[in-house]
């Protein structure tokens, strides 16, 4: 094929920033084709999916609530992916954090425990997620096992563990045999930001995490050692950065943030333990991290965009009886488009005359 | 009391469970030997399962369903090939994207078939041999997918080791720059290897929805694509070891079901997590023993020809 990729040395910031926008547009075109293929009017579908949620104050709040876990997890994943460590098991770390944090909520349930419970739950959530995340890190450092596969396998293990707890020891005895725990006491619930509405304190936690991550990744030696360890491991080794410490560090951070997202979700919007506590936030956050160019501010914007696909998907499910899988198609297409757009921004495609090499 | 009939039935179900894994991991092994790590196996497999079921249900033909599943697997694999080979995008991210998209597309296709059933692919009884005690039913009373997986195993083993195509494919996977310098079309070969992987994953999906559990359920692959990926590492990229790995994991996933049936008081969720824990254990053991030996040297490295 007489085409070749030519690496661009100096890519302008504008071109880099344009890639996610182009990816979004491509996704919308693919989405329109999908709606037509499903026999739906694309204009009506897009209105329900992407426009109507933005016009309603209630769903706007819901948008922020759904973006919160994506932002937290996505920031953590940015640490991993910048270091070229492929943690794809954030969903499991999210569950592990939610479980450890909820343990305290249930252990103090019905007692007169004070307002220390909520902060302690957040700490336990972060610890639980970090410990779960450190398992693949340990297996990689100690045995050289692929962190991609081990972190993913641990998602299934964590979900089954949660399932066991809510159907067994943690089931509410007065809950008519439903597989769910008691509703958390007030001191174990995430406080709301305003008396009315859905916005909760976890959103502040996520924004603080984003600010802290921006500083750490952009302005500190730790951030630099993560970046250089990912892009030039040999140079990092010569500079004296310890590869193993980077592996443990980024997995601990991303696990902790995913765990934090998990306990915030359970103690906030959900309010009790259930067999399912996530519509796949841990996987969608991978897309948020990529779409946000592994930068906390970018991930913030990307989280809002992806949260919109969740909200729009729910709306389309109700009013158009469309399966929720439409949202997964959107999310997958978005990731594919951003990966392609990334390459097309960094490389230039040239026609090559008279060669047969492909 | 365990009699021969029960043991035979258990063995037969182990073979069935192992076949899905063997089919999918054979395809992935070929793609990886050509130097591409395709994490999209789960996505290709579930699209194969959905398209295969939809076609078989609508046409009434298992053969058409199977062919459609294989074709669907190939189509999905082209998404990965386009990103990872032709645009030289990061292979891990490209594979993940393929899986996420595949799960969504399969869900859309399958949503109108929830709750339906078809007749499972019939067992092809080989005369005389099926009558053998205990193993007869398990080995010689299987559906066509099982025999196909064994034939495919032989073909891949022979093809990789003994044919010119296999040699070129391995050269591309070991050192793409050298293969390119020798005039081999690296990206075309990788694309073909990925398409073969897609076809195998589609076939594995068809086995799942047309023979193993002859109905459609969303997320019915339940991580089997990922376990297939782990099996390739476990096999140290040697096809014959895939056979051992696939049957070992087939046995774990079937036996845990039977133990659940006995009701020994072990929480079912713990038993259900055994295949995943066993996968982690196998990965750890194999990487501790081998430390990355056996992996194609160019695995996961994008290739951009410089001239």
Explain this structure.
The complex is a heterodimer of chains A (358) and B (307). Chain A is mainly α. Chain A contains 13 helices and 2 strands; from the N terminus they run βαααααααααααααβ. In chain A, helix 2 crosses helix 12 (296-320) and helix 4 (90-107) runs antiparallel to helix 5 (117-143). Chain B has one domain (4-290): ABC transporter involved in vitamin B12 uptake, BtuC (Orthogonal Bundle). In chain B, helix 1 (4-33) packs across helix 11, helix 2 (41-59) runs antiparallel to helix 3 and helix 3 (62-86) runs antiparallel to helix 4 (91-110).
Keywords:
heterodimer; A: about 350 residues; mainly alpha; ABC transporter involved in vitamin B12 uptake, BtuC; 2 domains; two-stranded antiparallel ribbon; 2 strands; about 5% strand; B: about 300 residues; about 70% helix; about 0% strand; globular; transmembrane (chain B); transmembrane helix (chain B); ABC_transp_permease (chain B)
- What fraction of residues of chain B sit in β-strands? under 5%
User: How big a fraction of the residues of chain A is strand?
Assistant: under 5%
Head-to-tail CA distance between termini of chain B: 70 Å
Average pLDDT score of chain B: 88
**Low-pLDDT residue intervals, each spanning 5 or more residues of chain A:** none
Shape assignment of chain A = globular
Structure class of chain B: mainly alpha
Overall mean pLDDT of chain A stands at 89
Topology pattern of chain B, helix = H, strand = E: HHHHHHHHHHHHH
Pfam family, one (chain B): BPD_transp_2
Protein name (chain B): ABC transporter permease
Main location (chain B): membrane
Keywords (chain B): Cell membrane, Membrane, Transmembrane, Transmembrane helix
